[in-house]
Specification:
Layout (H helix, E strand, L loop, with lengths): L17 H29 L1 H27 L4 E17 L2 E16 L22 H30 L1 E6 L7 E2 L4 H4 L7 E5 L2 E2 L3 H7 L6 E8 L2 E8 L1 E3 L2 E6 L2 E2 L4 E6 L3 H26 L2 H11 L30 H13 L2 H19 L7 H14 L14 H24 L7
Length: about 425
């Protein structure tokens, strides 16, 4: 839905001749063929994973607008347009009151409903079919329909991932090795090296790094370590330091990237239901905090610095939830455009379709939350206006908000979104996000 939606009447239009209708149809089908050709180019140039992700995102956008469309039609509202894309029209057809079609700029979609606000002039004959004439609960159902579709899709995708692919759990690895030796630590003094594996502590065998940590004595205690290196077991003696995070624990001064293994655990249908809700809640929470952090003054300033290629301090990504999402430090707070998101989705899909399900679930939650931001022209802005009108209406007197007072705010939001879109596209092409291996 858009802020400046207007309806149009077919009355007064000159009927097209059969030849003109044929020419219009031919031109329209040419645009549709062009769109299909572009999808074929995506398949040839970027491969099947990119095409799958593109089609999935198109389907997601289509279902978002279909939610608005179905809710509006069920409420008795008149829908005059249903388009995928913006800008010049590539293809269209009319069915009843509605024109369906494709436009040239693939940056979203829209459904045009008549009478979305008090500024729009509508024929008196159609006033009873306007958005503004309907009861509060009808207007609310239309406003939240798009985000509701995204949330339902996310729930289905998370549930499907859990049932088909199982839950991912981390377990201690018996084949772990040292990947880091801290400078000045007891490990460095005892000549522990990258690639070593500790197989015993004071003569007692240990299979995993967790086992080793569990049997380490307190700080200041000398220990004898059995160290496997190049097929031989060496003995190294050292005195433990105090752990930086807990002074009561002994500290060797090593790290390991291979200390944990990820494994898939089968999840039954009933078990998947609460886990789906937990993961959905986690993604909603992270999306809310992420959007709030980005659109804060410090977040926008950091984004501007990134676009202008000015260095910023490394950020720390949030942790938690059962669906792991990781990125290099420089990319943890990066905002990506639709093009960057498509590239990430294609890269993930190459490693398995389970990754695609998770990617689409995260994307649906993010878009659903983003659309509920309480500002025009987003859906959340219409929710706020409808609720405000409801609160101001009592004793049978219907209050109608003056949207003209909100137009400057809407234009400011649009300008910010355009800036973010252009900046994120620039970053996606000049400094694309690198996924961890």
């Amino acid at each position: 839905m858009t802020l400046d939606q207007t309806g149009s009447s077919r009355s007064g239009q000159t009927p097209l001749s059969p030849l003109a209708r044929l020419r219009a149809s031919r031109d329209g089908w040419g645009g549709l063929i062009l769109a299909v050709g572009l999808l074929a180019v995506v398949r040839v140039v970027w491969g099947l994973p990119m095409l799958i992700v593109v089609l999935a995102v198109i389907g997601m956008i289509f279902l978002h607008e279909m939610g608005h469309f179905v809710a509006a039609r069920a409420s008795g509202m008149k829908v005059t347009e249903f388009f995928l894309g913006f800008g010049p029209r590539l293809w269209s057809m009319r069915r009843g009151d509605t024109v369906y079609g494709l436009k040239a700029i693939p940056a979203g979609a829209y459904v045009r409903i008549i009478g979305m606000n008090n500024l729009e002039e509508v024929s008196p004959a159609d006033e009873h079919r306007t958005y503004r004439s309907k009861p509060y609960w009808r207007r609310m159902s239309v406003a939240v329909a798009g985000s509701t579709v995204h949330f339902l899709l996310a729930l289905v995708l998370i549930f499907s991932f859990l049932v088909i692919g199982g839950r991912t759990e981390s377990v201690p690895s018996p084949d772990w090795t040292v990947s880091r030796v801290e400078s000045g630590s007891p490990a460095e003094g005892a000549d522990l090296q990258v690639g070593d594996r500790i197989v015993s502590v004071n003569g007692s065998p240990v299979a995993t790094m967790d086992d080793m940590v569990a049997v380490l004595p307190g700080p200041g205690t000398p220990v004898s370590l059995g160290v496997q290196r190049d097929g031989e077991v060496l003995v190294r003696t050292l005195t433990l330091d105090a752990h930086p995070g807990d002074a009561s624990r002994g500290y060797i001064g090593i790290g390991s990237r291979s200390a944990w293994l990820s494994q898939s655990v089968e999840v039954g249908y009933l078990e998947a239901v609460p886990e789906t809700l937990d993961e959905f809640g986690f993604l909603v929470k992270e999306s809310v905090f992420g959007i709030g952090s980005f659109f804060s003054p410090s977040g926008l300033n950091s984004f501007f610095r990134d676009v202008t290629d000015q260095p910023t301090q490394d950020a720390v990504a949030p942790t938690g939830g059962g669906i792991p999402v990781a990125a290099p430090v420089d990319d943890q707070d990066r905002v990506v455009s639709i093009f960057g998101a498509l590239k990430i989705g294609a890269d993930l899909t190459e490693n398995g379709y389970g990754n695609l399900l998770l990617f689409l679930a995260l994307l649906n939650v993010f878009i659903g939350v983003f659309n509920m931001i309480p500002l025009l022209p987003l859906d959340g802005g219409h929710v706020v206006i409808a609720t405000y009108e409801r609160l101001r209406s009592w004793r049978g007197n219907r209050y109608t908000a003056d949207v003209s007072k909100m137009v400057p705010v809407a234009y400011a939001v649009i300008l910010i979104l355009v800036f973010v879109f252009i900046g994120s596209v620039y970053l996606d092409f000049t400094d694309p996000v690198q996924l961890p291996s």
